[in-house]
Design goal:
Radius of gyration: 33 Å
Largest sheet: none
Shape: rod-shaped
Helix content: over 70%
Distance between the termini: 95 Å
Number of helices: 3
Number of strands: 0
Order of helices and strands: HHH
Oligomer: single chain
Structural class: mainly alpha
Strand content: under 5%
């Protein structure tokens, strides 16, 4: 990407440089800084989301464990009591 206005290039110089932009990949410094700042924001947001997902996974694991414990208790409470046979 090329922004001749950002670096005060004349139209003739900008036109000449456009012919090699695809090869060189040059971007004006203010725009590179802007992209870098935006990238850091995205990376910070991604890190925060990763932490939140990890917390949610822990909570789901804990809830599953609690539900399994309750199900085990209910199953034990509803099992028929087998009377011992007296012969």
């Amino acid at each position: 990407m090329f922004h001749p206005v950002c670096v005060n290039l004349s139209d003739s110089v900008a036109t000449t440089l456009r012919s090699i932009i695809d090869t060189t990949g040059w971007v004006c410094p203010p725009c590179r800084l802007d992209v870098r700042v935006k990238l850091q924001g995205l990376l910070s947001g991604q890190a925060k989301l990763a932490e939140e997902v990890a917390c949610l996974k822990d909570e789901v694991k804990q809830l599953k464990s609690e539900l399994q414990g309750e199900n085990d208790s209910r199953t034990a409470a509803t099992l028929p009591i087998v009377a011992e046979s007296h012969n």
